[in-house]
Amino acid sequence: MRRRFVAGNWKLNLGPAQAAALAEALRTGLADRGDVDVAVFPTALSIAAVLPILQGSGIEVGVQDIHSADAGAFTGANSPAIAREAGCTRTLIGHSERRQIFGETDASVNKKVRAALAAGLLPIVCIGETLAERDAGQAEAVVHRQVAAALEGLTADQIPGLTLAYEPVWAIGTGRTATPEQAQDVHASIRGWLRAHYPSFVADETRIQYGGSVNAKNASQLLSCPDIDGALVGGASLKLDDFRAIVVA
Ligand code: 13P
Description:
With 249 residues, this protein is an alpha/beta fold. It is 43% helix and 16% strand. The relative contact order is 0.15. The structure holds 1,3-dihydroxyacetonephosphate (13P).
């Protein structure tokens, strides 16, 4: 049985004061969330404001991107080891905005996955096809390629600790959610790929979140699909009531 996992990607929103206010609201508003893992990913400069508020709440705090090196001459980068030392437990890796805007590649995603695990940060690895790739019938091939590259060199035992987030690029921030059938098809296909390439516990235990315009209204249908183990939420994670409704779903 895979425990559900809902994560809020705050992207480049909420400075320290606003982030702290939302963290306070989540701490009390999600106190009775039941059997669901919850994490939030503030922008890096707001992490220090959020961590002490969520300490002991069971709501994890993560960093939205890391570099593949822990230290050195890498101006502007986030260190996996320093993120861990600061209190982060997770990191996003390979979000489509990082891939499209900041030039992230399958190879750099793999380096970052290894660096995160070495530092003790659990990655959420984001994958997903563009609209052109979907229209060309390549959605499954693209996500299989992205998963294979992200996991290269990992042992089977390492994989269930990380989470995969299927985020079709055409559904992010567009209000155009994948239908539960579209999402379930790709999730099942990813799980099938894992089953074909690793011992069966990897496919059974690795959580696959859906992301892309998840909101309070569509969450329960998406989350009732057998291979959808949670959600990676952007816009709707910025409001307590919407995020809470998704967690409850
Ligand atoms: P939206 O929920 O705003 O579409 O963003 C999804 C996302 O990119 C989460 O990482």
